[in-house]
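Before anything else, study the sequence and fold tokens given here and see whether the fold suits the sequence. Record follows:
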Amino acid sequence: MRCVHVWKRWEPERVHHVRESQAGDSVSALQQGHSC
């Protein structure tokens, strides 16, 4: 689940540094209403 657009929405500074360990956080972002 690597949605740069989703991460870019609430964490633009680390949009290019998506860590697999933070995959759980990305899931919450997806639930906000942003799909790949």
Observations:
- Residues 10 and 33 are 13 Å apart (CA to CA).
- The chain has a mean pLDDT of 58.
